[in-house]
Amino acid sequence: MAERYIFNKSLNRRVPRWYWLAFAVAAIFSFTVFVSPVKAQEPLLVDPDAKRNASTVTTTVTNIDFTQAANNTAVTLVSFEGQAPKFQLIESQGKVSVTLPNTKLGEDQLVELNVADFGTLVSTIETFEDKDGARIEVNYSGPVTVQNMVKDGIIRMA
């Protein structure tokens, strides 16, 4: 027994070729992943006005009416063509500001109404329009409590 002989038959076999092929593919893949320069990710630019620009103006102020109720209360009615928008009402420093997003003013609605002759605490009603929507400002003097209601496409502020 001059030659070395291994009695365990599983140790006499050579490793199959597909092991070497799988090892070579894994090595190449690892090399390309870890050694190649990492490309910086392009920053994703988001337009903050995209939603605003995509939405179209679907609501138009058609009429602003001022009346005096029976108990000497000032009532302002704002009528719309289309659905009444969700509005923001802010009362401070002698002024009630109603912001109407995605709304435009109708013809002859960009006005300043002097309503001091009605004998209420309200002195003027002024309208503004910009690219984001419309705004109505009601100027008053004295202590007031503002109540608002939306019904049938009309905003009622008393």
From TrEMBL:
InterPro entries: AMIN_dom. Pfam families: AMIN. Residues 63-145 form the AMIN domain. This is AMIN domain-containing protein. It comes from marine metagenome.
